[in-house]
């Protein structure tokens, strides 16, 4: 996996640092700081696989010696807050072996040398997958005559028409003059180069990405010097761990920096789980809304039915008195009972059955009539 790391920092005297000491540490050499009398001995430092000095064409050849170069730098940079060197810390690709990595970083250093810088290059590799380069570059350029160039220069301040701006005496309202009666003009200090500008730093970072991508094009690996935010990528970048953090991890301890990167590596999985939970949440909310909607419809129907029943009951209660009055006003006709007269004792006596073989007169009459 390609990782972009190109950190650019200033080594300054105001922070208590020394160009001699920084160079000795990165190159694994023993150098004497003549300014402080301190000898910086890092000859026992492990993991330094390459170091060299790269100079512009017009630089003195004695600057090839690391001790001489940085001693001259500290001599010319005499201010208490002077910038002694500019350091580039660059991660080298894992896809390349050491000779290929060396060629890649040397090509990048040559671009810095073309701008007039003296470059001190060191490559560190302890075999732990953290191969990287340290580049210390001078903050002054070398002129064609082999002398150090100035960092700043004085110039006249000019108005929008390009005319010099006079210095006005507030008491007289006239232009100031010096002791020799020469007119005074407003002066400004400008930098001799653009090395301290943010745009220049951006250009160096972009240039490293171009070298990297050009060299690893056949490996199908590319990097981008811009942040994820500037690329429009919604992703949290990892942080630089460094040797100390990784040494802690190897010794069984937990480094905060390494733990942060592990947490960042888990973010995609956590994001997927979050999206899944959001999807489930939306489904649950939609299901609940459907249930509530059906309940509302049910209660609406019940309310309507109850209202209709109440109306019918009121109508019934209203019409009941009229029906009662109608019922009371209707008198049914008395029926004449069909009272049978009591039979006499003679009639109550059952008739004697006719003798066998004899028929009654009526039966004989009926049979006679029928026979006729």
Give the structure's gist in a few sentences:
The protein is of the alpha+beta class.
Key words describing this protein structure:
BirA Bifunctional Protein, domain 2, 42% helix, 9 strands, 9 helices, two-stranded antiparallel sheet, disordered C terminus, 372 residues, 15% strand
Describe the protein in words.
The protein is of the alpha+beta class. It folds into 3 domains: 6-145 and 197-235, BirA Bifunctional Protein, domain 2 (2-Layer Sandwich), CATH 3.30.930; 152-191, no CATH class; 242-319. Helices cover 42% and strands 15% of the residues. It is built from 9 helices and 9 strands. The strands form 3 sheets. A 5-stranded antiparallel beta sheet has the order 1-5-7-6-4, with helices on both faces. A two-stranded antiparallel ribbon has the order 2-3. α1 packs antiparallel against α2 and α3 packs antiparallel against α4 (198-215). The longest helix is centred in the C-terminal third of the chain and has 74 residues, at 256-329. It is elongated and about 140 Å long. The termini are far apart. Mean pLDDT is 83; it is low at 367-372.
Number of strands: 9
> What fraction, in percent, of the residue positions are helical?
40-55%
- What is the radius of gyration computed over CA atoms, rounded to a whole number of angstroms? 56 Å
Q: How many helical stretches?
A: 9
Average pLDDT rating:
83
Strand residues, percent: 5-15%
């Amino acid at each position: 996996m390609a990782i972009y790391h190109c950190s650019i920092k200033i080594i300054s005297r105001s922070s208590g640092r020394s160009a001699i000491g920084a160079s000795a540490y990165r190159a694994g050499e023993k150098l004497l700081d003549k300014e402080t009398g301190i000898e910086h001995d890092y000859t026992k430092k492990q993991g330094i696989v390459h170091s060299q000095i790269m100079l512009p064409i017009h630089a003195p050849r004695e600057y090839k010696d690391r001790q001489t170069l940085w001693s001259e730098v500290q001599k010319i940079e005499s201010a208490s807050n002077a910038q002694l060197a500019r350091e580039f810390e660059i991660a080298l690709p894992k896809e390349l072996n050491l000779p290929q990595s060396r060629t890649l970083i040397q090509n990048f250093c040559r671009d810095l040398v073309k701008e007039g810088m003296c470059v001190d290059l060191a490559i560190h590799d302890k075999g732990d997958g953290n191969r990287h380069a340290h580049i210390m570059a001078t903050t002054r350029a070398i002129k064609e005559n082999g002398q150090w160039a100035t960092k700043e220069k004085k110039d006249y301040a000019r108005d929008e028409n390009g005319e010099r701006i006079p210095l006005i005496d507030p008491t007289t309202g006239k232009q100031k003059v010096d002791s020799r009666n020469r007119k005074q003009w407003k002066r400004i200090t400008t930098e001799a180069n653009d090395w301290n500008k943010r745009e220049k730093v951006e250009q160096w970072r972009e240039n490293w990405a171009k070298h990297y991508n050009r060299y690893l094009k056949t490996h199908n690996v590319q990097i981008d010097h811009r942040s994820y935010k500037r690329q429009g990528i919604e992703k949290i970048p990892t942080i630089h761990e460094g040797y100390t953090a990784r040494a802690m991890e190897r010794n069984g301890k937990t480094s905060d920096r390494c733990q942060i990167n592990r947490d960042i590596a888990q973010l995609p999985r956590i994001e997927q789980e979050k999206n899944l939970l959001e999807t489930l949440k939306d489904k649950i909310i939609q299901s609940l809304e459907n249930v509530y909607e059906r309940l509302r419809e049910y209660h609406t129907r019940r309310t309507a039915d109850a209202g209709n029943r109440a109306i019918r009951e009121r109508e019934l209660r209203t019409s009941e008195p009229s029906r009662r009055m109608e019922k009371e006003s209707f008198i049914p006709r008395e029926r004449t009972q069909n009272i049978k007269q009591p039979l006499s004792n003679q009639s109550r006596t059952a008739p004697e059955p006719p003798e066998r073989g004899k028929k009654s007169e009526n039966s004989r009459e009926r049979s006679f009539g029928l026979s006729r």
